[in-house]
């Protein structure tokens, strides 16, 4: 007899594992926090990529997790870890814009990385002009490679909200890209 596990059951098992890791990390287990980092780093990266300049994202990801580690005891509901972490990431992006200098000097060693595909940058720029809900879910899906259920599980959004945001966001993205190519 073959056993099948439904999607809600998988989500429930993942949430239970997250709660356990959060509890262990709260007790000072750095290994458990490392596992949380592995599970949630793409989420944080995607949220930041939607809000700050690309070269700043990696450092800010580290800042988000460092801040989360320091504030982990203040998290009241371990089931809300993903949403709590997402809010820290969003707040770090706001802080970045509040603190950032308007002029940055380019140094020769900053230009060593190969340039990303111009089309990909154009799509990313287009996504960044979209409403927050669409922008975040599209970047998590298209850039970070997360599935709809993963986005739902990590952010705490309902499956239906993620599905609708992705559907409407993709529609809006197509319309905006077609509008740009028709100019």
| Unreliable residue runs | 9-13
What is the CATH architecture assignment? Answer: Orthogonal Bundle
Which fold name is given in CATH as the topology? Rna Polymerase Sigma Factor, Chain: A
Shape: globular
Q: Helix tally? A: 8
**Which CATH top level class fits?**
Mainly Alpha
Q: Can you give the mean pLDDT?
A: 85
Count of folded domains: 1
CATH superfamily, by name, is RNA polymerase sigma factor, region 2, helix turn helix motif
Characterization of the model:
It is a single chain. Residues 9-13 have low confidence and may be disordered. The chain has helices at residues 7-26, 30-49, 57-71, 81-99, 118-128, 132-143, 148-155, 159-181. It contains 8 helices and no strands. With 183 residues, the protein is mainly alpha-helical. The protein is globular, with a radius of gyration of 18 Å.
Tag the structure with descriptive keywords.
Rna Polymerase Sigma Factor, Chain: A, globular, 183 residues, single chain, 0% strand, 8 helices
In short:
The protein is mainly α and 183 residues long. It has eight helices and no strands. The model is unreliable at 9-13 (pLDDT under 50).
